[in-house]
Specification:
heterodimer; A: Ubiquitin-like (UB roll); DNA polymerase, domain 1; B: alpha+beta; Aldehyde Oxidoreductase, domain 3; Aldehyde Oxidoreductase, domain 4; 7-stranded mixed β-sheet; 5-stranded mixed β-sheet; globular; binds FE2/S2 (inorganic) cluster
Chain lengths: 160, 788
């Protein structure tokens, strides 16, 4: 079937099978390969995107269900001129990524968290990231980056 | 003042920009025009004989291009093992064949039987389900000791038993160690399991094979830590493709942790099939597939004895370990429980006599190989656990017992064949006591107890051997490869630089840290230097990244190549300045004549090298490009002291990590921010091993923890903020940067302190009958232990 969606502000369409997942549609049909797939049990969060403003694991949603929706992915987070948004910049400033594979999902989850809770505590950040696995960073610098992106002073958290 | 560029600066990572914007180029992001998709039919039984394999119906399914089975691989080489161990009696290890696709028998759940290639991934998967396969199930061998029992079913019919090797080290010390233990004032004995783990880099493995009939060239894009190693093993031993016709590319790789070192069947298959079909083919592992096809880690069952004299000096250590190899020998599997484990059994201590016995065993499970630390965590865990137990038995402070036995003079030759060049174990322990605020522990414990919780503190030290490794030495020990590395520094006409390195970055940040070194040496801006890695057609022959070797080995090669650049550039500058070469100095990107104000800029010299109009062509060649291969003189020996504080809920047995501190000696440091990040990640993996993770097989060889539903990965709320410090630096004496490597330390150093802390918490609650709990220290295990 044919679906029409808005992705990162641009209208696009494509043919999908009934069983095509949104993650597959983004990666394989639209070639937006920033959205990653790290598991097949909806546990890792590498695939998180926003659908109509809500954080969704794109491996748990059929592409057909997204018909008519507005989707935003990691590719749409920086400005046109390449300037990183505040969360992306905080991840770079605080070394919140190593291999980068979990990173798109982390950034998209962090954006959703800060939208609903603009000044989360450490415990709230850790709890919110329950569905996002990272094998590289030990989470220290991810939590720190998200708190910094929310405008909180993270100077007291051991920098190195 | 912290530096803002060059060696020692926390330069922000340049690679982050592409990863943060979704512009990374991971293997699964690569799509080649016309590619077909591969799906492997894998065994769902642990052990059996394939009695019939009917692919006719599947081959007729929509979109199917071709189906391959073991029959297509008769006469094709099997997957080679890169390390041969010689056993206690001088005999070579037993080495079974490891076919690309099963030949008659399947030996573990996940063993590939057939591969379907179709126009889409879904069609390939659908067709694989239509293959008719009959397997006569055989009893599975899962438990290592049962596998060695007389009359056990054999994993490999053509081997004499399930014993791969029975290794003794140092065999000549065996009797002396036995005697020292018999004569000791006190002997502490501990039996423990080093739990089987799955490395789980977040990016599953992927392989894309491509072939050009026009040039007869094969290209493999793969999720690898070491593209040249794959090219060598696959080209020479499996497929017989000469290296100049085989290109291996490992682009952005989403974490490795050891499990992406090895040469896997899927890589060979995709390369083979692309040639056979003259068409690109792509395979992407699902996570479920990764659990049953990625090499697992650890899985040792050990008994360790520590002997002490009447003054509590360590007099001997004796260990006996059963090490699971799984069903086949993965690429470096035999080296892990032997040379990467036995040689570390001295730890940080002056123990004069050590004997290590390791029996490596075949079972009907996924092959086991190196996982972050590889052998060294296993050594550290048993030693640091038995020391803690000894301290309790003797009623002495565990830190004091360690301090009393520290090695304090360097270089130090251990009784297990290695020589530590530098270290200062007192300094790291002092630093740990400070950053972990040990003096505040009593108050924190009182506060926990007031809430009805038990609080425990655990400390351990570690030593590791990194910068693997001197080729001469490892050759004597059975390695079938050299372990040097290489770098080419290509200076362009306008002065910018590409450095082609054999190391591979899959999270370590080489694209940022390596230029810091070259920039420091040349006095130019880091932004003028780029690192090229991961493509065998672009880089010199290097051995890749594992064993915390990148900066120590490949970084040293890069320094040597840069030194050659400086030497040649000075010759050119001397000509341009009409001065003697010996008088030329390079500082801040300017070549000047000592004692004068005459100088030329870096860019003038590089331009002259490529536009040699005014140039001493009779003395030196044009161009400015140099390569160096560096073979290390010794391993490097990072060390440190770690402290974990836990709370245990006496009602449920749940353990919470409250504080974690790490004081490491990594020698000199290039980028402190990156180094800290490496330690953080290692600690989380060590905490994962200690509290959460375990690959569990049932008696039939079914992997019960085969997804993230059942295999407990550490999540953000399982760990605290860590306090890490690497200011205690004793530079390595035998490499040009004085670096030791930092990638594995966290994973090596953290499990014992977690378990030591849990035992301490239980003792504080009066449960002094608990002397050990095996990892993962789950609530149910703690609760059972508390009940006695
Ligand atoms: S890929 Fe969607 S949660 Fe793992
Ligand atoms: S940065 Fe590698 S998985 Fe998070």
């Amino acid at each position: 079937m044919r679906i029409e969606v808005e992705v990162n502000g641009r209208r696009v369409g494509g043919d999908v099978e009934g069983r095509t997942l949104l993650s597959g549609f983004l990666r394989d049909t639209l070639r937006l390969t920033g959205t990653h797939v790290g598991c097949d049990t909806s546990q890792c969060g590498a695939c998180v995107v926003h659908v109509d403003g809500v954080a969704v694991k794109s491996c748990t949603m059929l592409a057909a269900e997204a018909d008519g929706c507005s989707i935003s992915t990691i590719e749409g987070q920086a400005s046109e001129d390449g300037t990183l948004n505040a969360i992306q910049q905080a991840f770079q400033d605080h070394h919140g990524l190593q291999c980068g594979f979990c990173t798109p999902g982390m950034v998209m989850s962090a954006a959703a968290l800060l939208k609903e809770n603009p000044k989360p505590t450490e415990a709230e950040v850790r709890h919110y990231l329950e569905g996002n696995l990272c094998r590289c960073t030990g989470y220290h610098n991810i939590v720190k980056a998200i708190m910094a992106a929310s405008g909180q002073d993270v100077g007291a958290i051991a920098a190195e | 003042m912290p530096k803002d560029s060059g060696i020692g600066a926390s330069s922000k990572r340049r690679e982050d920009v592409r990863f943060l914007t979704g512009a990374g180029n991971y293997t699964d992001d690569i799509n080649i025009h016309g590619q077909a998709y591969v799906h492997f039919l894998r065994s769902d039984v642990a052990h059996g004989r394939i009695t019939s394999l009917d692919t006719a119906a599947a081959a007729a399914m929509p979109g199917v291009v071709r189906i391959f089975t073991g029959a297509d691989f008769e006469g094709v080489g099997g997957l080679p093992c890169g390390w041969q161990i010689t056993d206690r009696h001088g005999a070579p290890m037993q080495e079974p064949a490891h076919p690309v696709l099963a030949q008659g028998k399947v030996r573990h759940v996940g063993d590939p039987i057939a591969a379907v290639i179709a126009e889409t991934a879904e069609q390939a998967r659908d067709a694989a389900e239509a293959i008719g396969v009959d397997i006569e199930e055989l009893p599975a061998v899962v438990d290592m000791k049962a596998a060695l029992a007389e009359g056990s079913v054999k994993v490999h019919d053509d081997l004499s038993s399930n014993l791969c090797y029975d290794w003794g080290f140092v065999e000549e010390n065996r009797e002396a160690v036995d005697k020292a233990i018999a004569d000791a004032a006190h002997v502490t004995t501990l039996e423990l399991v080093n739990n089987r783990l799955v490395a789980n880099p977040m990016e599953p493995r992927v392989a894309v094979g491509d072939y050009s009939r026009a040039t007869d060239e094969s290209t493999l894009y793969t999720t690898s830590q070491n593209p040249h190693v794959i090219r060598l093993l696959m080209g020479a031993f499996v497929l017989g493709i000469p290296e100049h016709k085989l290109r291996v590319v490992a682009p952005d790789v989403g974490g490795g942790f050891g499990t992406k070192i090895f040469h896997y069947a899927e890589e060979a298959f995709c390369t083979f099939a692309a040639r056979a079909l003259n068409r690109p083919v792509k395979w992407t592992a699902s996570r479920s597939e990764a659990f049953i096809s990625d090499a697992h880690g650890r899985d040792h069952v050990t008994k360790i004895e520590l002997a002490l004299d009447a003054d509590n000096n360590f007099t001997a250590v004796r260990t006996e370990t059963y090490a699971n190899m799984g069903a086949y020998l993965s690429t470096f599997a035999p080296s892990v429980p032997t040379w990467l484990h036995g040689t570390l059994m001295a730890g940080n201590y002056r123990t004069p006599l050590i004997y290590v016995n390791v029996k490596a065993v075949f079972t009907n499970t996924v092959p086991v190989d190196a996982y972050r630390g590889a052998g060294r965590p296993e050594a550290t865990y048993q030693l640091e656990r038995v020391i803690d137990k000894a301290a309790r038995e003797l009623g002495v402070d565990p830190i004091a017992l360690r301090r009393q036995n520290f090695i304090s003079e360097f270089p130090y030759a251990t009784p297990v064949a290695v020589e530590y060049d530098t270290g200062d174990y007192v300094a790291t322990m002092d630093k740990l006591e400070e950053i972990a605020d040990l003096s505040g522990f009593a108050a924190r414990r009182a506060e926990s107890e007031a809430r009805g919780m038990l609080r425990g503190l655990g400390v351990n030290c570690y030593i590791e051997a990194c910068g693997i490794a001197p080729s001469n030495l490892v050759g004597q020990l059975g390695a079938r490869a050299g372990l040097y590395d290489a770098a080419t520094v290509r200076v362009n006409a306008t002065g910018s630089i590409s450095v082609m390195v054999g190391a591979h970055s899959h999270g370590q940040g080489h694209e940022t840290s390596f230029p810091q070194v070259v920039a420091e040496m040349l006095g130019i801006d880091e932004s003028m230097i780029d690192i090229v890695h991961g493509d065998s057609s672009k880089i010199p022959f290097g051995m890749g990244t594992y064993g915390s070797r990148s900066i120590a080995v490949c970084g040293s090669a890069m320094v040597r190549a840069t030194e050659k650049i400086v030497n040649k550039a000075k010759k050119i500058a001397a000509h341009l300045l009409e001065a003697a070469e010996a008088d030329i100095e390079l500082k801040d990107g300017q070549f000047s004549v000592a004692g004068t104000d005459k100088s030329v800029a870096w860019g003038d010299v590089t331009l002259a090298a490529y536009v040699p109009h005014n140039y001493p062509l009779e003395d030196i060649e044009p161009g400015l490009e140099e390569t160096a291969f560096y073979d290390p003189a010794n391993f490097t020996y990072p060390s440190g002291a770690y402290c974990c504080e836990v709370e245990v809920d006496p009602e449920t047995g749940k353990v919470t990590i409250e504080r974690f501190s790490a004081a490491d000696d990594f020698g000199n440091i290039i980028n402190p921010m990156i180094v800290s990040g490496q330690v953080h990640g290692g600690i989380a993996q060590g905490v994962g091993q200690a509290l959460l993770e375990q690959a569990v097989y049932d008696a039939d060889g079914q992997l019960l923890s085969a997804s993230y539903m059942d295999y407990a990965m550490p999540r953000a709320d399982d760990v605290p903020f860590y306090t890490v410090d690497h200011s205690c630096a004793t530079p390595c004496t035998h490499n040009p940067l004085g670096v030791k490597g930092c990638g594995e330390a966290g994973a090596i150093g953290s499990p014992p302190s977690v378990v030591n802390a849990v035992i301490d918490a239980l003792h504080s609650g009066g449960m002094t009958h608990v002397s050990h709990i095996d990892m993962p220290v789950s609530p149910s295990r703690v609760w059972s232990a508390m009940q006695g």
